[in-house]
Amino acid sequence: MRRLSWIAASIALLVAAGLAFQQATANSRDLASLVPPGPLLYLEAKDFHSLLGEWNASNTKAAWLKSSNYEVFSRSRLLQRLELSQTEFAAAAGLPPDMNLLESAAGGQSAIALYDIGNLEFLYITRMPADQFGATQLWKLRGSYQPRQAAGISYYAKTDPATRHTAAFAAVQGYVFLGTREDVLAGALTLFAGQNNVSARQEAWFDRSLKATGPPGELRLVLNLERLVTTPHFRSYWIQRNVSQVKRFSAGIADLSRTGGDFQEDRVFLRASEEQPAWNENAVAQAARFAPTTAGFVQGWASPTADQVWALLHSRVLDPKPAGEASFNRAPQVNLTEGVMGSEGDLETRIDALPVDLADQPEYEPLQRLLRAVPIEAMVQIRATRNLPGGVFAGIDSGVVLLSGSDWDRTPASNALSTAFTTAWSIGTIGGQFQQRGPYLELPGLASLKLAFSGRALLIATSKELMEAMLASPAPTLPAARYAAIYRHAQELKSLTRITALIDTPNAVAAGGSEPPFFSRNLASLGETLSWVDSESIALHDTGAAVHVAVTYKVRP
Fold this sequence. Notes:
With 557 residues, this protein is an alpha+beta fold. The protein folds into two domains: 29-202, no CATH class; 282-319 and 359-555, no CATH class. It is built from 20 helices and 20 strands. The protein has helices at 2-27, 48-56, 59-65, 68-73, 77-93, 99-105, 130-134, 137-140, 182-192, 204-211, 225-228, 232-237, 243-246, 282-288, 306-318, 365-373, 410-425, 464-472, 489-511, 518-529, and strands at residues 41-45, 110-116, 121-127, 146-150, 153-159, 166-172, 175-179, 219-223, 249-259, 262-271, 297-302, 376-387, 394-404, 435-437, 440-443, 449-454, 457-461, 483-487, 533-542, 546-555. It has a 20-stranded antiparallel beta sheet, with helices on both faces. Strand 19 and strand 20 (546-555) form a beta hairpin. The protein starts with a helix and ends with a strand.
């Protein structure tokens, strides 16, 4: 009898649990299906309240707010524009959009859709119990708003007559809607009521992005790249300055997750026009086996062009001098009659780096001929910092690995490099012959070059230590990929800060003022803020139709 009672009770509990699960599933909505069409981007968090609380309590936030990086950012035009938008929203909403409002409006599953960058037109949706939202300052101010209805659901809207900015919000069945466009918020409520099924979720760019990736992470970002690149604010403030490359893609999606304390970001970018893959991703891993694990930075490309190989050899090995900056106290004179000032067609032309043209380097003709003749399947760059004698200064050693389609012909390769190197560093042909030094060749001089052959791999290094480490490297440092890289942040931060301090000092003295030096204080302070990061690695795979990128942030043990 007792046994039968126990079985009956167990069945009752299972039935109750199943009903509770069905009810929770029914109440849970896909937030993207509640967003009206037309956003430029969509960001969703599984638990926004927890993420925000974690950030506010973190040492990283406290360190960043005290850093030189934040000091410069606090005076930037971007932040000034954001503060202006914050003021305009406060005038419309009746309360400032500060951390207090953010914390009070941060629920569990949450999403924000951005419709206009310049005017910061957005829709925010979050899951939050009615009693929790009822205690917020925003809900208490609803009396100063105009009551409205959409699809039978009440909402509140208010427009500031001076700025013409709008704030509107609604709370229904455990969901909170907040927006700066009344028509968008009303459209979201109509979707919520089931009176419309045309949402951002059904748009082609959004649907294709979801089908190209896996389960969502703690944060998910979906991008309408086709429209984003046409907006002037994106072109002005996009820090990468590579709009011409982004234009090749129609949409993108990124998911951020945590595994064992490490951060993993998975990105997918969908091409507007499919390309035919013509690269060997396995070649990158084969070339990267010569990159030592002690190197601070390793970078690999599959099937680079001759121009790309030449640019790397020229900047890292043959002529590794920093580009000098001319200092002017007066504005340059402008020729208003014959001068060519450029046009809107030149907006995608980069002006921060000199173009490298093989035809403009006749003294390097033997090496250029070699690079045109030998198909390079993979190219790997290696950078390693090294403390110089005395412990005061630090230097950077450079290495390059070129993996060809067949074994290298050593004589023409070493002769071409010898001629190119002596052209860059010597007068005439003084010291222009490679000499055997055990397993590698050496071109002696004040700035010596090390050269080694290993079947299809050609190894070049600017120091004995790095060459020996490359020859002794036991396993691939990078995975098979079209592009891959790793930066060992914890290992390199101190040396790089020391190097950049020496670089920044003359410029800081010449510039004067109180602006923190860019490398040794601005970027270095950001690096120190992220001192808990051990390394960052990236692997890019290209199918021709889409580019898949995996970025991993390893946390220090």
